[in-house]
Write a structure and sequence with these properties.
- By secondary structure, the protein is α+β, with helices and mostly antiparallel strands.
- It contains eight helices and 17 strands.
- It is globular, with a radius of gyration of 20 Å.
Length: about 300
C-alpha cells in the first residue's frame, strides 16, 4: 500500500520579496511569527544547496520563482522550513521567527571558507497578501514602510489564510512540527502540491535517513485535516469538553490514542495521525471529549 501524490488545486503560495500594491489587503507579521533572512555572496547557491532538501541553483529558481525546502538534523529531524526567492543578487528566505538566532548559528557552522554573508532583515517585516487570481503571497516590507503598512494590517486576512491552509492540509513548519524531533515525511512534506523534498537531489543534511524512511515504506504517520463536531470558538464547546490545544491526544472509537492535534483555525485543525488507524477509524475520532470528522487530504491517494 503506497501513498502517492495526486493533482489537486494548489493553495497558491509564493514568496515575492517586493511589497505589493497599496490597494491590496496586507497582513504584517509580528517578528516572532515570520522573519526574512538574506543570503549573499558568490557561493550562496552551492552553500545552501548542500544543506537543504531541494535543489538550490539559478536554474532551479528560474523554473520556480519560489522554492519551499527544509533544513534537517543529520538524523533527518525537522529544524526549519524555508521559502526561497532569488532576488536582487541574493537568496531571500522566509521562515519562522522563533528560534531564529539558533537557526542562523546552525547555518553558519557550515560556512567554512564559503564566500557568503547571512543577514536577518530585522528592521523590516514579513507580510501576507492575497493574489488577484487566487492564493496568497508573502512579501518583505522594508523598514521605512513598516509603520505605514502596520497601520492598515488586516488580521482578517491572516485568519482567512490560516483556515484555507488547514482545510487544504498544508503544514506550517514553525508551528505544526517540533524542532529537532518531528520527521518531515510524517507531515506530508514529500507529497504536498508544493513538495519541500526532492527525491532526485543528491546529498543534503539528513538525506540518508529521509531517503531510507521513504524507500522502505517506513512512514507510519501522516498529516490530516479534522473538523470539530462542536465549534467555532473554544467558548462554544460543551462544558464537558476540554478545549483542544496543540498536542492534545486524538483517539479512535475504542479510546485508543492514534495521534495528536496540531494548529487550529475555526472549526478545523491539522492532526498528526497513524495512517492505519485513520483508515480503519473512518470518521469516528475524538479529542478532549469533542467529536472529530476526518478529512483525507485531496493531494494523496493509496495505490
Amino acid at each position: 500500500m503506497t501513498l502517492t501524490q495526486n493533482t489537486p488545486a494548489k493553495l497558491g503560495l509564493i514568496f515575492n520579496p517586493t511589497i505589493p500594491d497599496k490597494d491590496r489587503p496586507l497582513y504584517i507579521f509580528p517578528p516572532q511569527q515570520r522573519a526574512i533572512l538574506r543570503l549573499t555572496g558568490e557561493d550562496r547557491y552551492t552553500f545552501l544547496n548542500g544543506l537543504v532538501t531541494k535543489e538550490i541553483s539559478p536554474k532551479a529558481l528560474a523554473r520556480a520563482a519560489t522554492i519551499p525546502c527544509l533544513f534537517l538534523t543529520p538524523q533527518g529531524r525537522f529544524v526549519q522550513e524555508l521559502w526561497l526567492a532569488d532576488f536582487d543578487q541574493a537568496l531571500w528566505m522566509l521562515t519562522a521567527g522563533e528560534n531564529l538566532a539558533d537557526f542562523m548559528a546552525q547555518l553558519l557552522r557550515y560556512k567554512l571558507r564559503a564566500k557568503i554573508a547571512l543577514e536577518h532583515l530585522a528592521a523590516g517585516r514579513a507580510a501576507l497578501s492575497s493574489l488577484a487570481g487566487g492564493g496568497y503571497a508573502w512579501h518583505y516590507v522594508p523598514a521605512d514602510r513598516v509603520a505605514e503598512s502596520a497601520a492598515v494590517s488586516d488580521a482578517a486576512l491572516w485568519r482567512e489564510y490560516e483556515l484555507a491552509r488547514i482545510r487544504a492540509t498544508i503544514p506550517d513548519g514553525g508551528r505544526d512540527l517540533l524542532r529537532g524531533e518531528s520527521h518531515p515525511l510524517e507531515y506530508n512534506y514529500d507529497i504536498l502540491p508544493h513538495p519541500a523534498i526532492d527525491w532526485d537531489k543528491g546529498c543534503y543534511m539528513g538525506q540518508e535517513v529521509t531517503a531510507r524512511t521513504h524507500y522502505r515504506g517506513l512512514v507510519k504517520f501522516r498529516l490530516f485535516t479534522v473538523e470539530f463536531s462542536e465549534f467555532s470558538a473554544f467558548s462554544e464547546f460543551s462544558p464537558d469538553a476540554v478545549a483542544p490545544v496543540f498536542g492534545s491526544v486524538i483517539t479512535d472509537a475504542t479510546g485508543t490514542e492514534i495521534g495528536s492535534l496540531c494548529t487550529r483555525a475555526g472549526g478545523f485543525a491539522l492532526a498528526h495521525l497513524r495512517v492505519d488507524a485513520a483508515k480503519s477509524a473512518g470518521a469516528v475520532l475524538a479529542c478532549g471529549g469533542v467529536g472529530l470528522r476526518l478529512h483525507w487530504p485531496k493531494y494523496f491517494v493509496f495505490d
